[in-house]
Write a structure and sequence with these properties.
Length: 777
């Protein structure tokens, strides 16, 4: 038998017609697959797998067409050796498989194979749905990108019972959408869009099931669906909402409000507040930045809306706008505890950490603190304590970071406490940096955290880390204007000669608040004494205030320029007694002549108008115990007077000052352990600026007791103030005594860096150089 040409065989097999019929059938199959997937919430992989099966089927169909066109196939069928075109002949197919051959391709077998494959596909998908617990409808957003969908909420028409309530079926879509839109960063899908999608799916008289309602919400492009009902209960109206996350179909919360139908608008507002809580509980809290849902104690919709707006503003360091939003929240609900605390905190950023307004608001938040959860109560108490320099809540705060290690705000407040109260807390800048870094890692999109991260990098001289933190703040806040003093500090402390000159010029333009921060937060604390001197000289030139002369005197003493410091002291004495600086030079630099000490009235000043700390310490060092006692006895009387005027904080500080001064007397008389006991008890309770004396005396007490390691710790807590060079000097000696040569080299080297411009004959300069030569530095 002669085989016809290829084209003739293709024509006989009607390949084109078969292909067209198959493609048409495939389109029908795909439509069915898509419909079933949508209707039964089959897995998303069903349509793609159906396409793959149809492509495999296409190969089978074309192969069947080819085989059926062969003359040998026709002859075999006629002789009974092969199944006919439409025969399935399962016995013959099984025999072929047992013999290791593919069964002969017939149209019946090809169609049956396709039916079996699709049946297995849809059957398997159904079993998967049953066992995986997937929702019964496809939910996710279909018309917008994921970024937009994340914050979208669709309120679908309510289910109502009672003819008089029919108005609320679609009416609640308008009301709730309006109330929820913008709440905590959520975006309500326009009610008209929701109703349009609803009418495409739901017939006028139809009462759709939950799956249909969720499918409608998904078609709007929303991430969340709010499904509700309005039911008459006796004389009352009960409104209920259930919130669903359309990404996985789970219910994330519910809300309910019940009351008189005459107060339906108030009911809707209450329902809206509770619905927002449900949304935030389900994963939207990163949009709203609310700390704890239980602490959203307000029932006022305007208060909640304003508060959440304030939270967003605060997150982006938009402090003036945050103040406005929080104040609006408090106008609507004056006892909204979290709004009071956050407003207080915002004033701390906007003005300064000791802002009168911040303290006032903080006290109001303390009054309603019992409404808060324990976690936020700690924040409120410790935050307000920070403003007043009170360390009584520090231990609670340190315990809180262990109990809530994933809470960035608690970590940041701990870091702030270490940063602002510094050595009083016995926390170093390393401790502050660890806590603030943890806060940044937990919530890197919270702009204020990056401010102190940059501050600490500037103070330790890390230009790259400072620039990274400042850049993150700029990106998140959209501005660097909130912290101009930080950019000046960056140029002055980390810049080259050109940047330092620009920083000095910019410092002249700072307002009084920023000027104060530049000095107290950077210059005063920095080890870069030359940059600090430049700032002090700039400020003296700008303000003409004599206080900058004293600052320059202290800087000169720390730089080892004792001759210059003494000359400045003589000049200052022309205007009257200056006991403090005379004592500083005499005690921590080199002994001053009697005429200098007498001119400063250090031996004769009246306790009522004298620097008690300096004069009493000087008396103890000279063994003038009657004069020392006069200060110890006078300070409690002053404390009583302050208490009578209502200044309880200063009264308490003055009273503990008396105890500290008495303890120093014990130390000088040889009772180091007794002195240590008193000083550790009062440490952290004295007035800011006086705490350095307590730390110094503790260091000396431990040194006198032979406990050098503890002494090192307390000297280290003096490195950010007027005694920094003396602290390096004492720490270097103690480290050598302990055999820690590496630490000794570091401390001697730090002293040499401070003494770069020291008097050539300064004995400590020579001592430091000899030590470095001895230690191989």
């Amino acid at each position: 038998m002669t085989n016809p040409p290829l084209w003739e065989r293709l024509r006989r097999a009607r390949v084109v017609q078969v292909l067209l019929v198959y493609l048409g059938a495939s389109w029908v199959v795909l439509q069915i697959a898509e419909t079933l997937t949508e209707a039964l919430s089959l897995p998303e992989w069903v349509p793609p797998v159906a396409v793959i099966l149809l492509l495999v089927g296409l190969v089978v169909i074309l192969a069947t067409t080819w085989i059926q066109s062969l003359p040998a196939t026709t002859a075999g069928e006629a002789a009974g050796e092969l199944p006919t075109d439409w025969e399935i002949a399962p016995g013959d197919a099984l025999a072929s498989l047992k013999a290791g051959r593919l069964p002969h391709l017939t149209w019946g077998r090809a169609i049956m194979g396709g039916v079996v494959a699709l049946a297995l596909l849809f059957g398997g998908a159904g079993i998967y749905v049953g066992y995986s617990g997937r929702p019964v409808v496809e939910l996710g957003p279909t018309e917008v990108g994921a970024t937009d969908a994340d914050e979208g909420i669709a309120v679908v028409p309510f289910k109502v019972s009672g003819a008089e309530l029919e108005v609320w079926q679609e009416g609640m879509v308008d009301l709730l959408s309006t109330n929820l839109d913008g709440m905590g960063g959520f975006r309500a899908i326009d009610s008209r869009t929701v109703i349009a999608r609803w009418r495409e799916v739901v017939e006028d008289d139809e009462a759709p099931d939950l799956q249909t309602s969720l499918r409608v919400a998904g078609r709007t492009g929303a991430r969340y669906a709010v499904v509700g009902s309005a039911v008459g209960v006796g004389d009352n109206l009960r409104l209920v909402t259930e919130v669903y996350d359309l990404s996985d179909g789970r219910e994330i919360g519910s809300a309910q409000a019940e009351g008189s139908p005459d107060e339906v608008m108030e009911l809707v507002d209450r329902l809206s507040v509770e619905t927002v809580r449900a949304l935030m509980a389900g994963g939207g809290e990163e949009l709203a930045t609310s700390r704890n849902l239980a602490d959203l104690t307000t029932s006022s919709l305007p208060a909640l809306r304003a508060y959440l707006e304030g939270e967003r503003r605060y997150r982006h360091a938009e402090f003036p706008q945050a103040v406005d939003a929080y104040e609006r929240a408090l106008e609507a609900d004056p006892d909204f505890a979290l709004a009071l605390f956050r407003l207080s905190d915002t004033y701390g950023w906007l003005e300064n950490i000791g802002s009168e307004r911040a303290v006032e608001l903080g006290e109001r938040s303390i009054a309603v603190m019992d409404r808060l959860t324990p976690r936020n109560a700690i924040l409120v108490a410790a935050g307000n304590a920070l403003y007043s320099g009170d360390l009584s809540y520090l231990e609670d705060l340190e315990s809180a970071v262990r109990k809530y290690p994933d809470d960035p705000e608690i970590w940041f407040l701990l870091g702030e406490t270490y940063f602002h109260l510094g050595e009083v807390t016995q926390g170093t800048y390393a401790d502050a940096e660890e806590a603030i870094t943890r806060a940044v890692d937990l919530d890197p999109s919270f702009a204020p955290y990056h401010v102190h991260a940059a501050d600490l990098a500037i103070l330790r001289g890390d230009r790259e880390a400072a620039r990274t933190a400042m850049g993150a703040y700029e990106q998140l806040s959209g501005s660097k204007q909130a912290n101009p003093e930080q950019y000046v500090a960056f140029d002055l402390f980390l810049g080259d000669a050109t940047e330092r000159a620009a920083g000095a010029a910019a410092a002249m333009e700072l307002d009084e608040r920023d000027l104060s921060i530049l000095w107290g937060q950077y210059a005063y604390r920095s080890e870069n004494l030359e940059a600090t001197r430049l700032i002090a000289e700039t400020f003296r030139e700008r303000t003409g205030q004599p206080g900058w002369n004293y600052a320059l005197l202290r800087i000169a003493a720390n730089q080892g320029r004792w001759v210059t410091a003494e000359a400045m002291l003589r000049d200052s004495l022309q205007g009257g007694p200056e006991a403090r600086h005379a004592y500083l030079l005499h005690r921590f630099a080199r002994s001053q002549p009697d005429e200098m000490l007498d001119a400063a009235a250090l031996r004769s000043c009246d306790p009522r108008n004298c620097d008690a700390w300096s004069a009493a310490a000087f008396a103890a060092e000279e063994g003038d115990w009657d004069r020392h006692r006069s200060f110890v006895d006078f300070l409690p009387l002053r404390a009583d007077s302050l208490a009578e005027t209502g200044d309880t904080l200063q009264a308490r500080r003055t009273r503990v000052a008396s105890e500290a001064i008495e303890a120093y007397g014990r130390l000088r008389q040889g009772d180091a352990n007794g002195a240590r006991t008193i000083l550790e008890r009062v440490q952290g309770q004295v007035a800011p600026g006086r705490d350095a004396a307590v730390r110094l005396w503790l260091a000396e007490a431990y040194e006198a007791m032979g406990r050098r390691q503890e002494a090192l710790h307390w000297y280290e807590l003096l490195l950010n103030g007027d005694l920094r060079s003396y602290a390096h000097y004492r720490m270097a000696g103690l480290a050598e005594e302990l055999g820690d040569e590496e630490r000794a080299r570091a401390e001697w080297n730090a002293l040499l860096m401070n003494y770069e411009q020291a008097d050539p004959d300064n004995p400590r300069l020579a001592e430091a150089r000899d030590a470095m030569a001895r230690l191989g530095g």
